[in-house]
């Protein structure tokens, strides 16, 4: 597994423990609408932190996420070897995650996913191949909720996420953790990981969502 550092130099380098590869995750997967869309050139926005285990659940309606949860998108970006892109957070040592970010008012979730991917990783060479057809939620631990309440100016229980699976069609050199320059960088290092590795190195309160995402997208990851 290749581990890469951002060319952006940050004051506190992060390190992570050796990764182990547990057994595969499996489940059924709903197909994305027939023709996949390819994207090149996009723009704009971001977020989050760690601690206690908090619950996660699924909601049935894409039009109405659970009340009290911030609308958000998650991006599962895979390379030709079916490994998933993950990056280490600058604000939480040894915490790795897939790209994600808030959905702006009246913004289409798929458009938000493409925008967030470019803002956080610099990647525009990707095509959407699948999506989770329902919201996945996680709750913020109390201290994280308080921190984000100050940061965002709104008090959210947690986040309701719409997840998309994207296939990376570019070269690794395209990945730039400075992003597209529109937002402050969030990540220090990046790597291509197995689903099990990502779950292992995610903060506790996101693990259940990551397990569900890996299960739904498993036909594309095996």
Automatic annotation (TrEMBL):
The keyword Magnesium applies. Keywords: Hydrolase, Magnesium, Manganese, Metal-binding. GO terms for cellular component: chloroplast. One of its GO terms (biological process) is ribose phosphate metabolic process. SUPFAM superfamilies: Nudix. InterPro entries: Nudix_hydrolase, NUDIX_hydrolase-like_dom_sf, NUDIX_hydrolase_CS, NUDIX_hydrolase_dom, RppH. Residues 68-215 form the Nudix hydrolase domain. GO terms for molecular function: bis(5'-adenosyl)-pentaphosphatase activity; guanosine-3',5'-bis(diphosphate) 3'-diphosphatase activity; metal ion binding. Signal peptide: none annotated. The keyword 4Fe-4S does not apply. Its cofactor is Mn(2+). Belongs to the Nudix hydrolase family. HAMAP family: Nudix_RppH (MF_00298). This is Nudix hydrolase domain-containing protein. It comes from Rubroshorea leprosula.
């Amino acid at each position: 597994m290749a581990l890469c550092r951002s060319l952006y130099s940050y004051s506190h380098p992060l390190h992570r423990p050796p990764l182990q590869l547990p057994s595969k995750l499996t489940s059924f997967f709903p197909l994305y609408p027939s023709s996949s869309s390819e994207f090149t050139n996009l723009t704009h926005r971001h977020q989050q932190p760690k601690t206690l285990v908090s619950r996660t659940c699924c909601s049935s309606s894409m039009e109405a996420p659970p009340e009290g949860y911030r609308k958000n998108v998650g991006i599962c970006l895979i390379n030709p070897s079916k490994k998933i892109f993950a990056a280490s957070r600058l604000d939480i040592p040894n915490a790795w995650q897939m790209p994600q970010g808030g959905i702006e008012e009246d913004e289409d979730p798929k458009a938000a996913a493409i925008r967030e991917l470019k803002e956080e990783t610099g990647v525009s060479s990707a095509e959407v191949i699948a999506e989770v057809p329902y919201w996945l939620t996680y709750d913020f631990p109390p201290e994280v909720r308080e921190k984000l309440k100050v940061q965002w100016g709104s008090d959210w229980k947690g986040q309701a996420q719409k997840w998309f699976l994207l296939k990376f069609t570019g070269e690794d050199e395209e990945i730039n953790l400075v992003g597209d320059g529109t937002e402050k960088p969030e990540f220090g290092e990046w790597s291509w990981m197995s689903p099990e590795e990502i779950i292992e190195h995610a903060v506790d309160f996101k693990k259940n969502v990551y397990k569900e995402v890996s299960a739904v997208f498993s036909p594309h990851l095996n």
